[in-house]
Recover the amino acids of this structure.
């Protein structure tokens, strides 16, 4: 479970961050609830994109939006929501559940969403519909290697693992959803762990034959390439990590049910493949607002301008 910040540090960090994103020089602590629905993101590119998609969808209902911007990691975002500094953020089911106290990974999206919504209620928050899109750990091999060894699932690695090199970030060795989980859940003992400086380099390490199995995220652009394949997590080690809007209940009551309807419509149409493609467009330099607008219009989530 991610460690919570102490209450004094949380209050300082939230106030300073929101003020930096939306405040002025007059000592304001940031945009007020009356200015519009305040949409924020975590501090990574995919979250920034999703937050912009949420903002445009909310605006399409006639609801004013304040783009608070990138607030920071979950240790800052979660208290900011609870304290009423922001109103809505794109979340991920399993990670959010872990933060609010769930101790066991839940691979079932439907029950995970119900559990999350129940736990959030006491905090004045609610989880809307989850998208089919998931951003979670996947274990990847080259298509050539998968064909040669008849690999489809993680379990298929079986006795092969003892002769294979596994690549992932250094912290992967001790993480229950990474190498430690592959050992405890699947019984896999790899011949060697090869630390990767970043997941950005893992796909190239696979192609160069420096590693045989590597960790990527399911929305990684590398998985758009036909020479890599993600093995099926047949023992359901990974929790459901569907993208889900989490928002303040009082904000929903203030601005009306149309906001929830519109965000649920967006979520219903967003798949993992679509999110991969969107991430690639942003990584290639297309402005986030334009990327979001093009997709939302193409999928009839918002009307063409």
């Amino acid at each position: 479970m991610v460690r919570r910040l102490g209450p004094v540090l949380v209050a300082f960090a939230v106030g300073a961050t929101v003020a930096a994103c939306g405040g002025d020089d007059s000592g304001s602590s940031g945009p007020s609830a009356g200015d519009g629905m305040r949409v924020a993101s975590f501090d990574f590119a995919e979250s920034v994109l999703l937050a912009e998609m949420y903002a445009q969808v909310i605006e399409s209902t006639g609801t004013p939006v304040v783009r608070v911007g990138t607030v920071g990691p979950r240790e800052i975002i979660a208290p900011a929501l609870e304290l009423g500094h922001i109103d809505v953020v794109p979340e991920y089911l399993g990670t959010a559940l872990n933060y609010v106290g769930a101790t066991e990974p839940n691979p079932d999206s439907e029950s995970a969403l119900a559990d999350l919504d129940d736990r959030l209620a006491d905090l004045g928050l609610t989880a809307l519909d989850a998208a089919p899109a998931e951003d979670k750990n996947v274990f990847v091999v080259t298509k050539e290697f998968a064909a040669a060894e008849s690999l489809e699932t993680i379990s298929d690695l079986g006795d092969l693992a003892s002769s294979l090199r596994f690549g992932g970030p250094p912290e992967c060795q001790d993480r229950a959803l990474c190498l430690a989980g592959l050992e405890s859940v699947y019984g896999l003992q790899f011949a060697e762990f090869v630390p990767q400086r970043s997941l950005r380099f893992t796909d190239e390490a696979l192609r160069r034959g420096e590693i045989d199995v590597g960790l990527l995220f399911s929305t990684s652009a590398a998985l758009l390439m036909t020479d890599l394949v993600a093995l099926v997590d047949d023992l359901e080690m990974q929790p459901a990590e569907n993208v889900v809007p989490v928002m303040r209940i009082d904000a929903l009551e203030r601005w009306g049910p149309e906001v929830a309807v519109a965000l649920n419509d967006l979520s219903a149409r967003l798949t993992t493949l679509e999110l991969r493609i969107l991430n690639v467009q942003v990584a290639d330099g297309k402005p986030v607002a334009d990327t979001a607008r093009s997709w939302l219009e193409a999928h009839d989530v918002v009307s063409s301008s």
About this structure: The mean pLDDT is 89. The first strand starts at residue 37 and ends at 42.
